[in-house]
């Protein structure tokens, strides 16, 4: 590979790359809300056309049981190594909209950062791969076969992608799956994600009386589902931050003292962490550091809770129903299906007879570990060290990408997670952003990964 030619092409086309990213960010591809279904198709078609322009031999919008998948490929030599690039074009809902300082689907650059929904997660990051691919194709410097698999359902658990992979194993054959949907420790301390937590996502509903009741006439005599729900939810984590579901920790992989010490060598400033979040103190499982709590320990969190009257003014009622969405992040050896069963059994057991309980499993996935001994990891390590001037650290992420473990199970292919996001990007939150430096540094680094991977 002629690195100079590739980098010159990137430099000469930086402004166009950014303009095209803005076009992608303007498409409101929200997978969680059915009203945006036409926008999902529009986004998939836009990406397919973009990949053809970038140099793909083919780019198809393929149907699934849900939102379409974009598949593209360029085969330079059947004997060459093949990289399968995975990303997702769906984005999170924008609520609460009044907290956005700029319109979520009207991207703009402020203080060196791209603001807009999907700027980082995952449009900005997947688009780095499209433009790195273009830069290699345009300069005749593509050293590997490349395939793209871009889905529109990651933010809702990739429900259709598992069957798509089962049905298309031959189409998706590759030596490594390359993913940028994670973060680095910082631009000063680059890292490669070597582990992801798994996920079990549940929804619970507590039902009391068969209709809303007057809180004066019935208060104190009939179970209030909102009161009961909050009591039950509060009991799921004790005062030491320990999840109280029996059997929850039975399969947790416990790290040795030496492994924990090595894990905590990554730079982390607790005061800066608290200041950035505007909190006075952290909270979590006793006996573990903040980094351990978000990387190597499981957790349970309420993601949403509702019931009763929440509009302006007052309405004195005992609500008939109250509900909550609850996610549990899992670590190696924990099984998301087993945890779902344990959760439901426990939640039903602790509920009083004065209410009815409904428990639903929404989606989940297994934890994932990527060995640092993989040739792909070593190639990424070389590439990042060259562009950042510093060897990256292996790092466990607290996030989950359930389909990654699915890829390994169904396709038999490991994934390499080289994300360029940062904590300050505020993914899933109002005012999501992505640094220009992150975007361009990613485009600069990815071709080097191809170079070094081809040489392994």
From TrEMBL:
Residue ranges annotated for the Peptidase M20 dimerisation domain, each copy included: 195-353
Keyword match Cell membrane: no
Molecular function via GO: dipeptidase activity; metal ion binding
Keywords, alphabetical: Dipeptidase, Hydrolase, Metal-binding, Protease
GO BP, sorted A to Z: proteolysis
Highest taxon above the source species: Bacteria
CDD domains, alphabetized: M20_dipept_like
EC number: 3.4.13.-
Name of the protein this chain belongs to: Dipeptidase
Organism in which the protein naturally occurs: Candidatus Alistipes avicola
